[in-house]
Amino acid sequence: MTAARFDMLKAIASSRDGLWQSELRGILGVSAQAVSRMLRVLEGLRWARRHHDPGCDWKRLWVSLTHRGRRRLRRTEKLFVDSGALTLGVDAALLEPERLGDWQASFDATEEVVTLLWRIRSGFHDRATLYDGFYPPW
Q1: Extents of the domains making up the chain
Q2: 64 and 14 in contact (C-beta within 8 Å)?
Q3: Which residues make Cβ contacts (< 8 Å) with residue 46, sequence separation at least 6?
């Protein structure tokens, strides 16, 4: 599971029954072509499906996760997020070895990096809306 696939699955899962493919552009902050290519891969893995809504414009595609895609997302979240492995990996990258396990040091280092990343996003006028668990610091 790549980070991009994880983000795409999270974005689709954010709406219980699915969402329009065009909405994914804004959520992820990527081009229509990137969304289309990624969805093609996810369909090939049988993690997502697209279909036309007969009552709407034929160009618009509705995107939803398959049962297999939801199961894969839950398993990935359990393995990396819920287990604490993701936090440990970030802490290992940001902290000196002797400070691993220090909650305050972890919080401070993470806040510093998140602040920097939000400033970079702001500077590039990034409008992506995928919620990653961190609020902008301002």
Answers
A1: 3-80, 84-123
A2: no
A3: 66, 68, 69
Q: Which residues of 104-134 are buried (b: 16+ CB within 10 A; e: fewer)?
A: ebbeebbeeebeeebeeeeeeeeeeeeeeee
Q: Report the predicted TM-score, pTM, of the whole model to 2 decimal places.
A: 0.78
Question: Are 21 and 35 contacting, i.e. CB atoms less than 8 angstroms apart?
Answer: yes
- pLDDT tens string 22-57: 999 988 989 999 999 999 999 999 999 998 877 777
| Sheet (strand 61-65) strand order | 19-20, 61-65, 48-52
Q: From the CB of residue 18, how many other CB atoms can be counted at a distance below 10 Å?
A: 18
- Which fold does the domain 3-80 belong to in CATH? Arc Repressor Mutant, subunit A (1.10.10)
Closest of 65, 54, 50 to residue 20, by C-alpha: 50
**71 pLDDT above the threshold of 50:** yes
Q: How far apart are CA 53 and CA 50, in angstroms?
A: 10
